[in-house]
Specification:
single chain; 602 residues; elongated; 6 strands; 26 helices; mainly alpha
């Protein structure tokens, strides 16, 4: 394409808008749609884009944002719990895969240095494709999903020394890793870990008080890209930097708001990344050597699949989970492209073998979504009484904490009472509050709540609203309350909604949306009324009965008026009728009490 950036952006967006819905409609997934769009737009088919590497480099920001969001899901304590599957399972997978694949490359007349670098690169799987597939199939919290993520995390860590080893093995002058470089890299990483948490939380607290969503979005993007850039300058991985920043913010009160702000950018840039990968598939090379490329793809998938399945079974997974683990991570990874380029520059890899390996990895990424779908259909044919899935490790199982089933939106006086009662019962909940000062104050007292506006659908999704059974809408402002209830009812129609109501009119509007209203001063007013009666000498049990009778009557009146609340005359008439009924009701109670006293000779 010879036009400017605007034309290129339009073509890429149009391709995504057309391809992804079509592939999703046929059950093939979004990843395959993006890859197919990239193949069609790339230099080997329509030729709309000639420089796919430039787009790939820009689109890698999507992978950076993906790792940041993953870090947000993992608090430091949870990450420590996962150390066994990360460093145990990840180490075994990389060592075995690299050894087998490197040995096969030696048989293919590769030099041992080249075989070592390429074999290790092929042992790494695509973080972007793997996690996207797990997300599409809602398997991120399954046993194989958690174990697969642990392996991918270790692969991201091992990629750093691999890149550092390439110039050493290639003997490239002035490009060897020095002790000074290593010290700088470790120093920057330590500084980010030690200073990042307090600095970032303070930064977001200051920005949140501006009450300007666009500034908060800009700050979130600045943190992600800034940390990635800092790590890159220190010689580390940009993805690692973003992941560390996410982990440091995982326990902060701004976690869900940050995730809601970053998620749209991550999705769009990841789609662009997959399109760029598709553009890099050299169809001419595939057509020129179909047997070699096909054999390479088959060997890569078979070796990694076998090792991953064995690793899953060794981790006490069911056979189905082990097979799914293998089918998600058997592909090559995007980091292999970087390794191949560096190996070619260090004279460890010739141009022909470079092109072959890029085609093999690209095709493995392209066909994995299809193979995963095929395997799932085969596994669905198994009997329904198959053995239940188990977590691969007890510590990993503990890492997936119980998801809250209650959400409290608004932590003022009303919401705090609900939260305290749930805490006393050890019932987990997630709480949202749009006032940063309230969030800061309550966090000082140990309350677990998050900053954010519950009227935004992306924030609800980030806070795990799909798992919530009971929503407690306790915002003070009636309009905000109604907007939030309307949103929840639209997105989660089966959820139960308990809502704070300012008055009867507010309660009726909530009832229109099948929410159960709780008038904010009704209960306390009834308690005060009961105390008034006892202060006047009425026995406590009689006063309690009168108040309960009044509560039932008023709640019936509320429901009756709800049917006609848009007709003022009808509401007034209903109120007059109810007042008369209430007077007769209590007159009957008084007469009955007097009759009992006379019968007792009082």
């Amino acid at each position: 394409m010879h036009g400017g950036g605007l034309e290129l952006a339009l073509v890429l967006l149009l391709a995504a808008v057309v391809a992804v819905p079509i592939f999703k409609k046929f059950g093939l997934g979004a990843v395959l749609g993006y890859l197919a769009a990239g193949v069609v737009l790339g230099p080997h088919v329509l030729g709309f884009v000639q420089d796919a590497d430039r787009i790939l480099n820009a689109a890698e920001i999507g992978v950076v944002m993906l790792l940041f969001l993953i870090g947000l899901e993992l608090s430091p304590s949870r990450l420590m719990v996962m150390r066994k599957p990360v460093f145990g399972g990840g180490t075994v997978q990389v060592l075995l895969s690299a050894s087998v694949l490197g040995g096969l490359l030696l048989m293919y007349h590769f030099h041992w240095k080249s075989a070592l670098v390429v074999g290790t690169a092929l042992a790494l799987s695509s973080t972007a494709v793997g996690l996207q597939l797990l997300s599409e199939h809602k398997a991120l919290n399954s046993d194989y999903g958690r174990f697969g993520f642990a392996i991918l995390l270790f692969q991201d860590l091992i990629a750093i020394p691999l890149l550092a080893a390439i110039p050493l093995l290639g003997g490239v002058k002035n490009e060897t890793l020095t002790w000074q470089d290593a010290a700088i890299a470790l120093g920057v990483l330590a500084a980010v870990i030690v200073l990042g948490r307090p600095v970032l939380r303070r930064l977001f607290a200051v920005v949140a008080r501006t009450r300007m969503p666009e500034v908060f979005t800009a700050t979130a993007l600045l943190v992600v890209l800034g940390t990635a850039w800092l790590m890159t300058e220190a010689g580390l991985s940009a993805s690692l930097g973003a992941f560390v920043a996410g982990v440091l913010l995982a326990d902060s009160e701004f976690r869900h708001e940050i995730e809601a702000q970053i998620e749209p950018f991550k999705g769009l840039l990841l789609g662009l990344f997959f399109i760029a990968v598709g553009m890099g598939i050299d169809l001419k090379r595939v057509a020129a050597e179909p047997e070699v490329i096909a054999a390479g793809v088959a060997i890569l998938l078979a070796v990694k699949f076998s090792i991953l399945v064995g690793l899953g079974l060794a981790a006490r997974m069911s056979l189905r989970s082990a097979l799914m683990l293998g089918s998600v991570l058997w592909l090559g990874g995007e980091f292999a492209f970087v390794v191949f380029n560096e190996a070619e520059r260090a004279l460890l890899l010739g141009r022909i073998n470079h092109d072959r390996l890029v085609a093999i990895v690209s095709l493995s990424m392209a066909i994995t979504p299809l193979l995963l779908l095929a395997l799932q259909r085969v596994l669905q044919l198994k009997p329904a009484h198959a053995a239940p899935e188990r977590a691969p490790d007890e510590t990993l199982k503990e890492a997936g904490a119980q998801r809250p089933q209650v959400m409290i939106a608004g932590m003022g006086r009303f919401g705090q009472i609900v939260a305290r009662l749930l805490t006393a019962q050890r019932i987990p909940y997630v709480a949202l509050e749009a006032d940063p000062d309230t969030v800061e104050d309550m966090r000082r007292f140990g309350s677990q709540l998050y900053y954010g506006d519950p009227t935004r659908p992306e924030l609800l999704r980030s806070a795990g609203a799909e798992h919530i059974r009971v929503f407690v809408m306790a915002m003070d402002d009636p309009d905000t309350n109604l907007r939030a209830v309307r949103l929840v009812r639209r997105l989660y129609p089966d959820a139960k909604i308990l809502a704070r109501a300012r008055n009867r009119q507010h309660a009726w509007k909530l009832m229109d949306m099948s929410a159960e209203p709780f008038r904010e001063v009704f209960g306390s007013s009834l308690e005060a009324s009961e105390r008034v009666l006892t202060a006047l000498g009425i026995p406590a049990h009689v006063a309690q009965a009168h108040v309960q009778r009044f509560r039932e009557h008023d709640e019936q009146l509320l429901k009756a008026q709800h049917l006609v609340y848009d007709d003022e005359a009808a509401v007034m008439q209903t109120s007059r009728d109810a007042r008369a009924d209430l007077m007769h009701l209590f007159e009957a109670d008084v007469e009955e009490a007097e009759f009992k006293r006379e019968g007792n000779g009082e």
